[in-house]
Amino acid sequence: MGAACRPSVKTLCFELALAADGVDPDSPCIATTPAEGSLHDKPPGQSHPEDKQSNDMKSFRKELWFEVPSRFGFVNITDQVEACLRESRIAEGLVLVNAMHITASVFINDDESGLHKDYLSWLERLAPHDPTSAYLHNRTGEDNADAHMKRQVMGREVVVAVTKSKLDFGPWEQIFYGEFDGRRKKRVLVKILGE
Amino acid sequence: MGAACRPSVKTLCFELALAADGVDPDSPCIATTPAEGSLHDKPPGQSHPEDKQSNDMKSFRKELWFEVPSRFGFVNITDQVEACLRESRIAEGLVLVNAMHITASVFINDDESGLHKDYLSWLERLAPHDPTSAYLHNRTGEDNADAHMKRQVMGREVVVAVTKSKLDFGPWEQIFYGEFDGRRKKRVLVKILGE
Amino acid sequence: MGAACRPSVKTLCFELALAADGVDPDSPCIATTPAEGSLHDKPPGQSHPEDKQSNDMKSFRKELWFEVPSRFGFVNITDQVEACLRESRIAEGLVLVNAMHITASVFINDDESGLHKDYLSWLERLAPHDPTSAYLHNRTGEDNADAHMKRQVMGREVVVAVTKSKLDFGPWEQIFYGEFDGRRKKRVLVKILGE
């Protein structure tokens, strides 16, 4: 599912990989493996989307997997969340999208590569990675204390309205996975509640 | 609906308008035009609020419109969200209130004009508007990169509990629209899910 | 319910108490008094957790009370939110956990005492308590303007998925109450919506 890797994200990952981590720039920017998607609430066949009179509550859950090859990177996951919504057959409700790891974010903003680089420079000013010895947390053997700060600024989760089976978005809203301690597999949870 | 413009907000908008934008200080602080409010889930007449045994899920959606005359400004929207809640007839559930634009926030804090000025000074220190050339995003022709940062600090959305048909708030909680790139019409989405 | 006070939190509170407030370090770190927990939606006996075919919506509400003895402190409230979830008998849905006060946060991150000290140092750099005269808000007689800033960085609320009657968490996710103006009783709201 490398198609999830949009040009602006790819460019950003490459630059960061070259600058900070020496990762092969030809490696795929993002590997995404969906897991454990299922409708929890009904035996198959009981739900008919054309039955508009039904007010039964439904819920849906899916994990999205990411492996960002550099320490920092943003991935546009809007299409994947929309695919979850279609699969859920939920027409009215709320979608929760949250990072399942505490050094990563899910946030909504613009898909513009210059802005994403600005975000990373800005977050580095607010919570610098170096010197790693400046953080007590890094005495535990970690070097990612800054990532725990950056994730708080950008947020753990977003909640998005579902209206008429669509993400109810303004004109420029896009959902991003924000990675602040990458180079390993990490997950995002999509949970949809509605009818 | 200029009644949404409370004194502390008005004062704040005026000062900012005078200082930064030269906008007429006698212009209304906020113009609000509700749009597209409707119950999506039921034909009229099926829902009876007095029927406490019903556990059907309901959803409600409305957009609130704002035009803050200065670049920066905060608007108390608590009354408007409460009006949505009354209109929805939902007694138990969750309200999502989110900015539909990526240079604006919805947040919950105190309605105190000194604090609001403190917020703006503080956000300006964390993510200065000037020099606009310091941001790559502004090379796209925009001058609002700082607004994308400020909005992340203050947040895109709030989720508020609905209990016994009321916003379930602590003593000082008030909902604000936070504008960081105003002087144009922008929207807030109110989505309520419950029963 | 002093059992809610985990070692790392206790250590942190002590140091802060000694450094900033002169509070007796043998005093309990946290006093928690649950209040007003109840199922709002159904007469007792109508809900049968073994009835998996039921898609009725349920809601649950409970307040958690805290009194952090120092100005700043973090309290791990994961166990208390899990207890609410068990009491609610909701198997699939969403939990909202929010501070009901505007100088406190609820956030999800790691239960590591070094990280918590790092957070407090970092927040102090971003929004210093002193000099208190630097904030207009403090002219109202308050001295907690910095707490209103710190709470925005760390967030007011978290929304957590409920799946198969559990908080649907990644491996290190823990829920914290973040106090930035303590030494008085304050509340957190837990609201659960689902089936």
What does the secondary structure layout of this molecule look like, with pairings?
3 copies of one chain form a homotrimer.
Chain A: H1 7-21, E1 35-39, E2 58-66, E3 73-76, H2 78-88, E4 93-99, E5 104-109, H3 113-126, H4 145-154, E6 157-163, E7 166-167, E8 174-179, E9 186-194
Antiparallel strand pairs in A: 1-2, 2-9, 3-8, 4-6, 4-9, 5-8, 6-7
Please summarize what this structure is:
With 195 residues, the first copy, chain A, is α+β, with helices and mostly antiparallel strands. Chain A has a single domain (2-38, 57-130, 142-194), classed as Jelly Rolls (Sandwich), CATH 2.60.120. The first copy, chain A, has 4 helices and 9 strands.
Structure description:
Three copies of one chain form a homotrimer. Chain A is of the alpha+beta class. Chain A has a single domain (2-38, 57-130, 142-194), classed as YjbQ-like (Jelly Rolls, Sandwich), CATH 2.60.120. Chain A is built from four helices and nine strands; from the N terminus they run αβββαββααββββ. In chain A, the strands form two sheets. A six-stranded antiparallel β-sheet of chain A has the order 1-2-9-4-6-7, covered by helices on one side. Chain A has a three-stranded antiparallel β-sheet with strand order 3-8-5. Chain A is elongated and about 55 Å long. The two termini of chain A are 29 Å apart. At the B-C interface, strand 5, helix 3 and strand 6 of B face strand 2, strand 4, helix 4 and strand 9 of C.
Unreliable runs of chain A: 1-54
Identify the strand order in the major beta sheet of chain A.
Answer: 1-2-9-4-6-7
Rg of chain A, rounded, reads 18 Å
Q: What's the domain count of chain A?
A: 1
Percent in strands of chain A: 25-35%
Which structural class matches the secondary elements of chain A? alpha+beta
What does the main sheet of chain A amount to?
Answer: 6 strands, antiparallel
Q: What is the CATH class of chain A? A: Mainly Beta
Please identify the oligomeric state.
homotrimer
- Give the beta-strand count of chain A: 9
User: How far do the termini of chain A sit from each other?
Assistant: 29 Å
- Quick check: average pLDDT of chain A? 80
Number of helices of chain A: 4
